[in-house]
Structure formats: C-alpha cells, structure tokens
Specification:
The chain is of the alpha+beta class. The protein contains four helices and four strands, in the order ββαααββα. The protein has one domain: GTP Cyclohydrolase I, domain 2 (2-Layer Sandwich), CATH 3.30.1130. The longest helix has 13 residues.
C-alpha cells in the first residue's frame, strides 16, 4: 500500500482539560500518513485519482482550528474518522503533538492508526 504523508501541520486550537487551556488557543502539530493505492493516479497523472493533500490541509486547518476537544485522544480519533470519509483511503496513521502541554517535556502527544476495516 502506498502512502501520502503530511508532516508538521501546525494548527492553533483550544485543547485540554485545565481552565487555562480552555481560554487561549495553543499549537497542535499534526503528522499524517494516508495509505491508498496510487497506481491509477500515477498512470493517469490526474488529480481525480489522487489525494489532494492541499485540500486536506485546508480542511484539517479549518476543522481543528474551530474544534475545542478536551482530550488529544478525542481530537485524534475525530481526525482519523474525517480522513476515512474519503473512500480511497484505506489506512490512516495520525500523530498529534501538543508541544506546550508540559513545561518539563519538549512534547507530548498521541499516535493513532486506523484502517477502513476497523470502522465498518
């Protein structure tokens, strides 16, 4: 299975359970691997058969930026579910990083992997 990846998409959003996290937006870093069969796109050289990663980034920026999840797990699942709405995507690996979450650590986050089979 082939993969389009998006690395380090930074979006400001409300995320967290503590009062101070609910007031001011903070950065979330999104890394995605989107698995699908690329042969038809490669053979035709036509965007119709490919993933439009530009449009995916615009969509994610809007979706995440307007969200206000408490848990990074919930946001991660929502992103994966959103990506799997595209019927050509068979699997999604999503890594979310919350670099401002802890003063003692450079970064915290979650990695989620889902396949189309897991949502049926």
């Amino acid at each position: 299975m082939d993969c389009i990846f998006i690395e380090h998409l930074e979006v400001e959003t409300i995320i967290g359970v503590y009062d101070e996290e609910r007031i001011k937006k903070q950065p979330i870093i999104v890394d995605l691997n989107l698995y699908y069969e690329t042969a038809k796109a490669a053979k035709s050289d036509n965007l119709t058969y490919a993933l439009d990663y530009h449009q995916i980034c615009i969509d994610l920026h809007s979706f995440i930026g307007s969200s206000s999840y408490q848990l990074i797990e919930a946001l991660g699942q929502a992103i994966v579910d959103r990506m799997l709405l595209n019927e050509i995507i068979e699997k999604v690996d999503c890594k979310l990083s919350k670099p401002m979450a802890l003063n003692q650590a450079k970064n915290v986050g979650i990695k989620i992997s889902r396949t189309r089979k897991s949502i049926r």
